[in-house]
Amino acid sequence: MSSRETVLARIRAALADVPSEETPADVPVPRAYRRSHTEPGQDTVALFAERVADYRATVTRTHPAELPEAIATALTHRQARRLALPDGFPSDLLPAGDWEWHPEPLGTEALDALDGTVTLAAVGIAVTGTIVLDTGPGQGRRALTLVPDYHLCVIHAGQIADDVPDALARLDPTRPLTFISGPSATSDIELNRVEGVHGPRTLDVIIVETT
Amino acid sequence: MTGQGVVWLGSPSFPEAAREALKDSQLRANLKRATGTIRDKRLAVASELDDWEALREAGAAIKKRTARHLDRYLVQLEESVTAAGGTVHWAADAGEANRIVAELVRATGEREVVKIKSMATQEIGLNEHLAEQGITAYETDLAELIVQLGDDRPSHILVPAIHKNRTEIRDLFTAEMGHWGQPAPDGLGDDPAELAEAARRHLRSKFLTAKVAVSGANFACADSGTVVIVESEGNGRMCLTLPETLITVMGIEKVVPTWSDLEVFLQLLPRSSTGERMNPYTSTWTGTTDGDGPSAFHLILLDNGRTDTLADEVGRQALACIRCSACLNVCPVFERTGGHAYGSVYPGPIGAVLTPQLVGVENAASLPFASTLCGACYDACPVKIDIPEVLAHLRAKVVESKGRTPEALAMKAAATVLDSPRLLGAAQKAASVGGRALARNGRIGRMPGPLAGWSDSRDTPAPPAESFRTWWRKNRETE
User: Fold this and answer.
1) ipTM attached to this prediction
2) What's the whole-number average pLDDT of chain A?
């Protein structure tokens, strides 16, 4: 008997008390929990901004016309000059100035030598202050937002979901997803929070609002 | 030492190990501070959600549904992962899982792997097995790195090196990092940020050159085949995306029915574990993706005693554990003894119920007694595992396994009584009369007859004149 058959047979024997006619739906899952922990009428963009900042990420709110300027300001502040450019990042958002934009394909070593990455996002989650990337246009392979030490993420207000259930419903699980809540952090030494061990130590988030 | 497929620390039974640990006042102070800090953070973020109880109910119910139809969900998971380009392997025990991993690594021609912190691979002693096969496994989680460099063992599920202070870590990095790769910088100080930076540099070249990674899994969705890793540092993301081959070892109980079920667990887990609204990084992947991440993905489904646990109708609820470690941080016993005293990789209250079931109660007979049955762990558990109930149940099994002694009957009776509020009330009333008759100075010393063996090693406080339940009924319930 293969181990597959062995394990499955053990499971079936272990569940002798479960009636053979029982289906998963016969085990009720009470879904009385809230779909969202925001209040009706709450400013979820403000909540998102506050919660992202709570993780010691830097949050800027801007409008479409000012976006290239906001990107330039952040890059200047972080002294990030050599940047990975993900496939599909809109060229009209790139600020004019003395930046080196490195398009894909980029090897790991080349990526490691860069200062940072600028990306778009797929979904935001207001209640938890989370950004989700799904490797879609302008977001890059997962390595782009991981290897360089700085990540500047641009998210549109319309991409911000209220809470986790809403966000998961918007996402396609067949794509590789990265949920980011603040910069890389550890508390392994005497429970002192230290930003950045292996992932980017600095996370800047620009929220773009159309109104 | 590996016994019954689960790694043992080689420590003595819990009472002996605990006695030693209790002499270490530094350890106790570290633990008290650590558990207190995490406890407060957890309470603060859990109380932000006014439907916390409803989320716990849903989490418990999803886990119950999964357990009662585990065969179906595992087969569905296998289909989904295979359809997405992954390969699924089944391992009946630790030895088989270790052999599969070693063969997969050998097939790549590599002799090194990078590892994400994983309870399952600690449980089966994977690193030791790989070492015997000439394969070096590098732990990349900061705490696991500290433990590995010190040839030590983890003492906490969430913060495995909590028993080490910053000076000990600095000395360890200085002495050992050079043997494993990039040495620690000269004159390394003991500031946590400086130590984290040394770890970053030490592991950087490993991440950038590793061809094979080994991980565990926090969840795997049967419907989509999506595997989930929840972490903070980014070492997980490094291992999951940069190497060419990814090998994931997952206990069979980690499957959940659907992608959307994660909406419950991604709210419960970070808040219960690190006391954050969300952990810094969660990665999900479904099979392989062209041009992004590993081109080969292997998922190993590990039994290793889990089906024995599933067979116990009371004990099977322990399989619902999502490894958040909230029960450790509220446990008055863990807070004083630390994790090593529990002897297995699963410490604290959940370890006291999980380990004896994975290895057989006769092989871990002292663990179900490593508790005061105060119930704090049950209150803290995000998926409502009734740990005190399972402990009482396992105590009865332990004494039964030693023969049908009067003690066995007493423990079985105790399990029955603790199960029923009505019987408990009656027993407490009887005890307050009988027990007080035996007591001297408020303590009961050596008891007569068959209970002598039990009472030899402990004093029992005399029962109070009235039980808390009686007091409550008299003073509060009518208000």
Assistant:
1) 0.97
2) 97
- Are A127 and A91 in contact by the 8 Å Cβ rule? The answer is no
Give domain B14-306's CATH architecture.
3-Layer(aba) Sandwich (3.40)
CB within 8 Å: B226 and A174: yes
pLDDT of residue B461: 63
A27 falls within a domain: no
Strand segments (E) across A13-99: 58-62, 82-85
Residue of A nearest to B71 (CA): A8
What are the backbone angles phi and psi of residue B297, rounded to the nearest 5°? -130, 125
Interface test with B, best of A17, A22, A33, A193 (most B CBs within 10 A): A33
Looking at the 3D structure of chain A, how many domains does it have?
Answer: 1
* Strand, helix or coil for residue B379: helix
Q: Which of residues 26-85 of A touch B (CB under 8 A)?
A: 27-34, 37, 51, 54-55
CB B149 within 8 A of CB B173: yes
Enter the tokens of residue B339: 């994790």
pLDDT tens per residue, range B401-454: 877 666 666 666 667 666 666 666 666 666 655 555 555 555 555 555 555 555
For residue A191, the chain B residues in CB contact (below 8 A) are 33-34, 37-38, 159, 162
CB-nearest partner of B233 from A16, A17, A197 = A197
Put simply, the answer to whether B195 touches A189 (Cβ < 8 Å) is: yes
Average pLDDT over residues B285-310: 98
Chain A partners within 8 Å of B51 (Cβ): 32-34, 37
